[in-house]
Here is the input.
Amino acid sequence: MTNHDLEKIVETSDDWITTRTGIKERRIAAENEWTSHMAANAAEKAMKMAGVTAAEIDLIIIATITPDMPFPATACLVQEKIGAKHAAAFDIEAACSGFIFGLEVGQQFIMSRTYNTVLVIGAEKLSSIVDWKDRNTCVLFGDGAGAAVLQNRENSHGLLTAVMGADGEKGDLLVMPAGGSRCPATRASVDARLHYLRMDGKQAFKSAVQAMESAAREAMARCELDITKIKCIIPHQANRRIIDAVAERLGAKPEQLFVNLEKYGNTSAASVAIALDEAVSSGRLSRGDLILLVVFGAGLTWGAAVIEW
Ligand SMILES: CC(C)(COP(=O)(O)OP(=O)(O)OC[C@H]1O[C@@H](n2cnc3c(N)ncnc32)[C@H](O)[C@@H]1OP(=O)(O)O)[C@@H](O)C(=O)NCCC(=O)NCCS
Here is the structure.
């Protein structure tokens, strides 16, 4: 769906969306394509790249705020779809920060020697919770999925550290008010459009820049790295202006940044997973390169991870 397509739905313009966000297009899943479908597709590709079979998967973690249903967990639906018969499976909900949270949780299971092979997926069908009458939000989001296989292999590194943070006091900045125990679905909740996401964009912007900068600094400090040692910075793909502000504060050079939001918009938990895959497949990364992932989302939540590729 292009910005021009959106001009036909709400009062907006390609120029407004491009200058305020950098987004030109977003992907919209078909009506009969759910988060679990996109997650399973991404999982199959990741397993193929890693040379891992479904039988080897011990644990499936899906980060999502748009599960197929409130329960069962979308991870269980994906377990069935990919045939990972002996895998444990659960979802985590950390909004746009979910993929880094998932990587860290998966890594902990491997470090504790509980599991050998963990599949971490970020997947979202945000088009199903976006209010297509609200131009403040509907232009920003898109659908998609990305996945990674974590395994303890000889002579490999992977995730060196992950910083995670949260501030529940600012939970109201980005929220879907209804559909949970506080406000179950009623005719009134539907009429009041409470089943769509709502956002205070300006405040979210400010909080994002601060939280992403400090999380990135903490992750690099833990690894005794400065920004010049990072080959590729993969930030959460929400808004080009947020990315540029964070990069400037960190003293990063434009060529260190990986940005693909012009094609996808904000895909929440899928965002950095998709970008990581595109950075790899476009030849931006070689073995041994250091990558900095940095994310921010509803909760509020934030995180940063240093990966040795
Ligand atoms: C949403 C966001 C793009 C708005 O940009 P902004 O620079 O704060 O917007 P501005 O204050 O300059 O403009 C707001 C005006 O544009 C209007 N506007 C909002 N969306 C619009 C759209 N799609 N098209 C045209 N006009 C729009 C508003 O109604 C408002 O008009 P008003 O001033 O007459 O009331 C920006 O705040 C943002 O990206 N925030 C972070 C959001 C985010 O990424 N959240 C997720 C984090 S995981």
